């Protein structure tokens, strides 16, 4: 089968950073389904895993953690899917990724593809939808039924992949007042089109900008971009007894002491936790993705595709990595077909 892989961890401008390879087609066992991959999207986790380091893989390593496709075969313990079903999923970071013609994935972290979307537009959603959903509803305990309507959330990185779906979940389901950060007119307009009530300059004085629009503090903060740079502003903007959820690893100590006087909480969200640790509630991600599909088909949520870069090959995947590393992408970058 065709795949895009690496054996060395190189700068993205090196043509050998990601290469086209042929690999054996795997067979499913246990709870695994074998998916014929039709489309993928690329996320920051892809280039972070690929980041240059002194390591050489003995066999080609396939990255990629977002896909939509068709079930080609099922393992003997599979009960949720059958051959021919169309699915979408983010996968498991400890296993070979989705940048290949066929991929094995545990059925319990797979959802049924939204019927109203083609494969490319469906592939944009899984990782970011799971991440934003878990951060907002599982970590911060915001009601997905609108019981916290009228409260406010500040979303750092509103025009990114996770921010793009996070704005929609916060507005459409939670009924919150949404303030998103953005740094360019195009990204600001994107965030507003997704439902943000206000957009503030990502690189400006956040507290001053909030006060200028009549907001003295927010009930929740979602950090979807640069925890190190944004945590002090997040802590300052947060109301007493509020909560911050971040998805971005820190490079230096986080000044959590800023939260003490406010009796505020800091939560980490990592959507791979369930699959990495084989938690007893792994199937919750299957349910979550099915609910996202239902909401998309109902018109409540929309896909977050920013650009379709062409077919799945090493050159296009390298281009996607480069765009994400440069921080210029709006929405999700998608590739479709081999």
UniProtKB/TrEMBL annotation:
GO molecular function: oxidoreductase activity; RNA binding; zinc ion binding
Ranges in a coiled coil: none
Location within or outside the cell: Cytoplasm
Keywords: Cytoplasm, Metal-binding, NADP, Oxidoreductase, RNA-binding, Zinc
GO CC annotation terms, alphabetical: cytoplasm
Domain Enoyl reductase (ER) residues, every copy: 12-335
Pfam families: ADH_N, ADH_zinc_N_2
UniProt record similarity statement: Belongs to the zinc-containing alcohol dehydrogenase family. Quinone oxidoreductase subfamily.
Subunit note: Homotetramer.
Protein name per UniProt: Zinc-type alcohol dehydrogenase-like protein
């Amino acid at each position: 089968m065709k795949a895009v892989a690496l054996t060395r961890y190189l700068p993205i401008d090196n043509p050998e950073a990601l290469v086209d390879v042929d690999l054996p087609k795997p067979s499913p066992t246990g709870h695994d389904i074998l998916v014929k991959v039709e489309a993928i999207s690329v996320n920051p986790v892809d280039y972070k895993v690929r980041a240059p380091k002194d390591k050489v893989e003995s066999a080609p390593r396939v990255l990629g953690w977002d896909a939509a496709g068709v079930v080609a075969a099922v393992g003997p313990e599979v009960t949720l899917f059958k051959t021919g079903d169309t699915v979408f999923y983010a996968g498991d970071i400890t296993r070979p990724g989705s940048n290949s013609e066929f991929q094995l994935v545990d059925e319990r972290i797979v959802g049924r593809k939204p019927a109203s979307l083609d494969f490319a537009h469906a592939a944009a959603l899984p990782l970011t939808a799971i991440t934003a959903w878990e951060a907002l509803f599982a970590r911060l305990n915001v009601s997905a039924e609108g019981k916290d309507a009228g409260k406010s959330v500040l979303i750092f990185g509103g025009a990114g992949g996770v921010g793009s779906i996070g704005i929609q979940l916060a507005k459409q389901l939670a009924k919150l007042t949404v303030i998103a950060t953005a740094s360019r007119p195009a990204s600001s307009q994107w965030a507003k089109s997704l439902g943000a009530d206000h957009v503030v300059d990502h690189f400006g004085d956040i507290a001053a900008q909030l006060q200028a629009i009549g907001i003295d503090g927010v009930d929740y903060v979602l950090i979807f971009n640069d925890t190190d740079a944004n945590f002090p502003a997040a802590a300052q903007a947060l109301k007493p007894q509020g909560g911050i959820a971040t998805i971005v690893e820190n490079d230096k100590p986080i000044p959590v002491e800023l939260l003490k006087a406010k009796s505020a909480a800091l939560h980490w969200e990592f959507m791979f936790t369930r699959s990495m640790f084989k938690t007893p509630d792994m199937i919750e991600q299957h349910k979550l993705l099915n609910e996202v599909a239902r909401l998309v088909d109902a018109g409540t949520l929309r896909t977050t595709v920013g650009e379709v870069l062409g077919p799945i090959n090493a050159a296009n995947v390298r281009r996607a990595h480069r765009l994400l590393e440069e921080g210029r992408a709006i929405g999700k970058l998608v590739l479709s077909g081999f």
